[in-house]
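INTERNAL AUDIT FORM
Audit reference: QA-55
Scope: verify that the stored structure record matches its stored sequence.
Auditor: D.O.
Record contents follow.
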Amino acid sequence: MMAIFAQQGIDCIVVGRDQWDLSVWNNQLEILLGNVDALFHFGAYIPKSIDGQSEATQTQVVFDANVRSCLNLGEWAQKNTIPLVFLSSSTVYADVCGQSIKEDAPNVINGFGGFYGYSKFLAEAVIAHFIAAGLKAIILRPSSVYGVGLDSDKLVQRCLSLAMTDQPMTIWQAKNKINLVHAYDVAYAALSAYKMQAWGVYNIAAAEAVSVMSIVNSCIEICGSSSAVEIVDHEFSNNVSTRFNLDYTKAIKAFNYSPCIDLHKGLEMMFKGDFLPC
């Protein structure tokens, strides 16, 4: 998001956890944000097993970072008549492996995304409360986001890191597919929706889903890697699934959304450390 703002000459104020605890309401928000035209809330906490926290503690941290922050930011935005653009997640859907998932598909209570997915559902509900009170808001539900800065334990980053160091890869469910949307496409969609004042909820995804094997092969090709690949077959290997197969027709109609970064280009950008396409 920051790279696109800079590219388009848009001034912005960045607020992170090191500056203010988003779970706590106080007058620091007025001081930090000042006289802004819009609020883009892209921050979230994704629990990791390596954090060394108990499940109960992580649940509290997730709730504070992902839900309580939306309560405070939504209240501030509504009170000051400031539009809010919120980055949610496709983990809010009950069936993440459904066919052509639309925005009105059933939401999750306890599913693929665990409490993180439910926290995004709760965050959307909080924002909806302020929308009913007059807040102008955009909620984006991206498929599976990738790009520079992706966590090391994520599939795409893990494959790319192994390919860069010529390490062997063991692949399970190689035929399974996932819709990967590049961070640039998500950020550009957010800015486009705001400029068009397209208030509402929208899916954001890539043009097509890609297989795990395609991700591996592309990483090897881009890195010029000599990594050996072992495909492990299971008895259910023929049951191919596609995850986050989102229908983004609504975004096309509302603000002319069109993903421009395909898998090869996106992985190449990650390999080079580029936030913006050349």
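Auditor finding: record pair retrieved intact. The chain is about 40% helix and 15% strand.
Action required: none
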